[in-house]
Design a protein that fits this description.
With about 150 residues, the chain is mainly α. It has 6 helices and no strands. The protein has helices at about 1-30, 35-55, 60-65, 75-95, 95-115, 130-150. It starts with a helix and ends with a helix.
């Protein structure tokens, strides 16, 4: 079953790159209005989530539970909006490969810190030296990916 989750995560990563390209082209089609493209993307996503939520959610106590959440738990939506906007803006400026690689690297650094220290009320998951080695390999890969042409010249 674990492999299914890994496959899902891989598909999400692929979707993220495709979404960035689509939203960048949407922004271009809207007169280079990246913020408008991000809004439209978020609106369509919200409508899709609303439809699925209405179909399968249990609404008993939902409003009571929503009102008791600490303020910082609302930041996910703000971060998500910033993510969609940034991806649409950065894709044509630095290229999809560079952008996705940097996004993944940022996600790995943040994920390692969250796991290591149990930040944001997540469980602590010790990091082995293999994970640090993997991060070092990613950093070397980033340097080759982004500056390999300059090194070659």
């Amino acid at each position: 079953m674990q492999y299914v989750y890994w496959l899902m995560a891989f598909a999400v990563g692929m979707g993220s790159a495709v979404q960035a390209a689509i939203n960048a082209r949407l922004a271009h089609g809207l007169g280079n209005q990246t913020l408008s493209a991000a809004f439209v993307s978020f609106l369509i996503g919200t409508l899709c989530l609303a439809a699925v939520m209405l179909y399968q959610n249990n609404f008993s106590g939902l409003l009571d539970n929503l009102s008791t959440q600490p303020w910082w738990r609302w930041l996910g939506g703000i971060i998500g909006a910033g993510f969609v906007f940034s991806m649409a803006m950065l894709a044509p400026k630095i290229g999809l490969v560079n952008m996705v690689f940097l996004v993944i690297l940022g996600q790995l650094v943040a994920g390692m810190a969250i796991d290591l220290f149990g930040l944001i009320q997540m469980p602590v998951r010790p990091l082995s030296w293999y994970k640090y080695l993997g991060m070092a390999v990613m950093l070397v890969g980033l340097l080759v990916l982004m500056f390999g042409d300059r090194i070659k010249a």
